Amino acid sequence: xxxxxxxxxxxxxxxxxxxxxxxxxxxxxxxxxxxxxxxxxxxxxxxxxxxxxxxxxxxxxxxxxxxxxxxxxxxxxxxxxxxxxxxxxxxxxxxxxxxxxxxxxxxxxxxxxxxxxxxxxxxxxxxxxxxxxxxxxxxxxxxxxxxxxxxxxxxxxxxxxxxxxxxxxxxxxxxxxxxxxxxxxxxxxxxxxxxxxxxxxxxxxxxxxxxxxxxxxxxxxxxxxxxxxxxxxxxxxxxxxxxxxxxxxxxxxxxxxxxxxxxxxxxxxxxxxxxxxxxxxxxxxxxxxxxxxxxxxxxxxxxxxx
Length: 306
Ligand code: FER
Description:
The protein starts with 13 loop residues before the first strand and ends with a helix. The chain has an 8-stranded mixed β-sheet, with helices on both faces. It is globular. By secondary structure, the protein is an alpha/beta fold. Helix 2 runs parallel beside helix 9 and helix 3 packs across helix 5. It is built from 9 helices and 8 strands. Strand 5 (171-176), helix 5 (178-190) and strand 6 form a beta-alpha-beta unit. It binds 3-(4-hydroxy-3-methoxyphenyl)-2-propenoic acid. 3-(4-hydroxy-3-methoxyphenyl)-2-propenoic acid binds at residues 56-57, 106, 177-178, 180-181, 202-203, 205, 248-249, 252.
């Protein structure tokens, strides 16, 4: 099915803001928000698959929506039956306001630290706030018929973890650039609560910043070891990776993907999208931009939840 450059859709999804509190790594608590896309006809009685989509360096919870046709991609896909309607969440990984901190280029160490710290916030603040409000397979949304959690904090955390783990194949994460980096971090730290990963134009910085290029083998090994550490198999996850041939990230991502391809006991790489547990698409003539990478989300849509 072809993605139209722009198509007016009669049945549009809507965007709602979910606010939540999150401590930064220095212990200061921030009130933050995520934008949540609800598909047309969202029915609180039904559980939905959910995709968390993360912005790039210097971005925020609005970046994907402001800078790409991503909302229209979802509207078109769901109106035309490309896949079942799902909820999409756009959080912000920064605690600070990035425009006040980024003048020229990126401070890779600082960004990587921010992204890593966000992993705890994602699990403990973002996901609970969103999935208690809207009905997902975690069944945390009481109005949707889901169960409410126990009062006792420790017990509540375990119950929450359990339900997120059981519903992991209905939860995906992806992102652009530093959001791709966020996605790889989520692979290493949250493979138990996410089933599908879409790192777009960003390599894995879990070994070191630009690790995909400088430490390809070590990075690939860390990712393979993660799968084993969680006790998962080839069938338990999907990696839908993409970038562009004129994208600065292609030089970091390609060596990492090549190293991962060697580890065939864990990564079942296939050229054909939808086969194996790992695909890698390089778009022709595409630079490092939201306006390019949203096309990959369209192409991968039928594969995210199946
Ligand atoms: C990458 C290339 C560029 C990458 C991140 C960037 C995480 C970020 C660039 C920026 O924010 O300016 O491979 O991987």
